[in-house]
Backbone:
């Protein structure tokens, strides 16, 4: 059986949320899952995931609600999800 392919989506994050995601991603990879992420480019979470060897898709996801950025992000995520053929989508945060 092929390992499940998981996409984690996270807004800009620091502290506990960032640490949780990194621990979760590392644990899933150790268990044989294929893990990729989508988060804002050049954020600290983007850099930490890249250093951990996780594929990162840049998306225009901001912390507070922002209609223009949110619409761009939905379009970007639709494209990533349709090309990636993920088995599981895990969204972190609001």
Residues:
């Amino acid at each position: 059986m092929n390992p499940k392919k998981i996409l984690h989506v996270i807004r800009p994050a620091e502290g506990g949320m960032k640490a949780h995601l990194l621990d979760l991603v590392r644990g899933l990879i150790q268990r044989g899952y294929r893990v990729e992420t989508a988060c804002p480019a050049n954020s600290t979470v983007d850099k930490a995931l890249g250093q951990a060897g996780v594929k990162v898709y840049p998306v225009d996801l901001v912390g507070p609600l922002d209609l223009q950025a949110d619409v761009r992000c939905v379009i970007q995520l639709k494209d990533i999800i349709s090309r990636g053929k993920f088995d599981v989508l895990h969204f972190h945060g609001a």
Observations:
- The chain has a mean pLDDT of 90.
- The beta strands are 5-10, 34-39, 55-58, 88-92.
- The helical segments are 15-30, 44-51, 67-84.
